[in-house]
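Honest question from a wet-lab person: if I give you the sequences of every part of a complex, can you actually get the arrangement of the whole thing, not just the pieces? Trying it with mine:
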Amino acid sequence: MKKYLFAIGMMFLISISIKASNEAYEKAMRTEIQKLYRAGSVQDLQQSANVFSRIAEMNKEEWLPDYYAAWAYANMGFRTDGGIQEKDGFFGQAKMHAKKAASISPNNSEIVAMQGFIIMGELSVDPNSRGQSLSPIAMQTFAKAIELNRQNPRAIFMMAQMENGMAQFFGQGPEKACGLVDASLKLFEKEASEAKEGALEPMWGKNMAAQMKAECP
Amino acid sequence: MKTILSILLFFLAVQTIGQTLIKGSVKDQKGQTIPGVNIFIKNTYDGTSSDLEGNFQMETELGGTQTLMFQAMGFKSQELEVVLNGSVQEFHPVMREAINDMTAVTITAGAMEASDEKRAVVLKSIDIVTVPSAMGDIVGAFQTLPGTSTVGNDGRLFVRGGDASETAIFIDGMKVGNAFGTTASNVPTRTRFNPNLFKGSFFSTGGYSAEFGQALSSTLALNTVDFPLRSQGDVSLMSIGGGFTQTLAAEKSSITASANYFDLAPYQSLIRQNFDWERAPFGWDAEVSARQKWGNNGMVKAYVHTESGGMKIWQAIPGSEERGELVDVQNRYTFAQGSFKQIGKNDWSYYGGISYSNNVDALVLDQVDLRNQNQVLHGKFVALKGFSDRFSIKTGVESYTYRYEENFRSQNSKRELNDHHTNIFSEADFYVNSKFILRGGLRGGHSSLAKETWLDPRLSLAYKFPSEGQLSFAAGQFSQMPVEQLRIFNQELQNTKANHLILNYFLNKNGRTFRAEAFYKQYQKLTTFKGNPFQYIDIQQNGEGYAQGFDLFYRDRETVKNTDFWITYSFVDSKRKFAQYTERVQPGFASRHNGSLVIKHFVSGLKSQIGASFGINDGYTYTNPNFPGQMNDKTRGFQDLSLSWSYLPRPNLILHLACSNVLGRDNIFGYRFSEQANASGRFEALPIKLQAPRFLFLGLFLTLSKDKNANQLNNL
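Yes, you can. This is the full assembly:
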């Protein structure tokens, strides 16, 4: 009897602690994702990145904490007023987290799109000297993300941005890029309507796509 | 029951000891505060970030002894023990900077790197292909860089008063024998390899690493593309030939096969030539390269290139009105290599490989029918161990087998040379901090034929100024066996020697690069000889000399919109006793003043890149037998203005038009004199010129791929 009681007790405890850790994870993530979407300054983003790094340390099976840490660092790279070295430093951190996320969840369209986003960032640091070598890699990466999930609005929107840059470079019209933006906006809407309350999956990018849409003829 | 209770109690106890306040500040070694440090209790969610002043404060409900972690970008992580007992805990750690490849100082003395990845680079890979005067030749592009001189009638790399044989070429770390195409004398040659094969290159004009040897002046290390972006086919149609390349890329492996054919005959029938061709140069090449990922970080590459070509040319004889001598050159060449790299455990990494080159020339001139064959087999294994982010040691062993044979089929006589070299090298990198690096290396070698053992020390260091710019210094000793054509006559010849001293300043800021370098190079044991090619006599090693000077390089991609330009000036003061000279002379290939300017301008409206390059020097020395002395005369200065126009009507189509020496300047690289004086006692001269005043190149390059981007809209 004693034995059984002990075993039942242990199982109970274990299940409590697993549930607790899941809840703790989800709660921590939900709170921080909200903060991240509101974060404006590099400092805010750094704090968020730090929190996601900590969550990632605790949840080595989850790809989302590293994904968001990568996104925070990439945004730091875009927003900082610092020089090339500082920007590259942020994109370097972003890359590292994206790579970690990818090793946890291979062939994940969102992570591949994030990797493309980071390459786009590196390109933007010094477009004159990096454009030629990085823009095909960025496009390739977005193409892969789209191939993995044709419903990924972020991958399609970022591809639209690249297409827009290409069209400008070659003096072509924005039709193709704008077509992609329209497609991405539809998917963003679909994503928003289907999303469950408090979902942890990536939801960002709609505003940027809408902004780009405004520039379309 | 009791057990369960106590476990339950324990769980509760852990969580209810009360709150502990942890606070403090974080500084770096210079005493400056670090914002944004991630501070947390290991294996828990509890943590915070330091603010802009480096201060932090957090509360935790945990108890007991825990590990407090400090993590920040650019610093080494730190772990501190913390006892959580309710009382305030204060920490003021000093974080040590981490050395990062991307931001730390790099040694730039003597080095010119073209890479898309690293920072202290002079060129991007793509820049090489688009230099107008280069006409798609890798070496042609390097000839617009400081420290090199253009020797138009040769085409190879001449670095800082050194002759072309003093530059060694490597692909993925493996030696390439006979990297340049075989040609008749005074007909310029090209590198055999397609520039698109390479993702980057490392060109050293001196003071280079102990990893490389058997080059008195310079090394050019080319690195092949790791992974092609996509499966694609590339078609090239050119005024001188055409080719097709097919790439198949999968997740972990890829293969590229290519075949090209060229024939200058149609072109030469349209455009008048200075040379008297019996058969214009022609040739074909085929190559296959394959790459396979090996685990997560490793890579195995294989590459085979084979080609065949030839030409027949009448070489006029000074003082004679006749057509002269008919020279028939046929060449067969194969280069094959396999290489690998792998990252092991505990900061070990390994790379190495094996390469084989086989060059067969068949020369028929006048009565002589000569077939010579040169083979080089190179094996290499290198292990690299990082002891910390500051200190690493690279150690390697190499084996070289050289085999050279001259077969006079007309006389039925044959001679050969067999040599085996064993080399070991070791090189240590020590970062004093991220601004200061020291590198020391030793390279030892042994030649079985010369029965000589040698040891070459190398040293370099670099210091990055706190504000901007960096200073590098390099020194070393370099050994190289004399060329095979001499060794075959005198198999006891020992290494020739050079000592280098180099001081370099490098500044890269906001799209502008400035580089200044001063050098001193001392030569010893150079070969001197009498006689003619393939009939050398009295070969000795009492030659010596020096080369000194400086060069300047400025590149700017910012000042003028859509425009990239670089300008260089190199001053070389060189005198040496070598070859057939019995006293110190200024070598014909070492012009004193050398300049070049390359401009590329992108015109969006025309979807075109327009390029111009201009090269100039003060002329080449030569010996005029009508006057006493050696190297007693100098040609007029060399000048070349090349223009190019690349038109990109679509992302996958490029039309390229280039013309060298647009101004049609009559460049002279020296003179050939008659062997006997004529009736009036004068030696008659014939100027050495290019094959035609201008070279016109028209090419169409089309990339065929299953362009997923293009199909995107339709699929959605």
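Two things worth pointing out. Chain A has a mean pLDDT of 89. Residues 16-106 of chain A form one domain.
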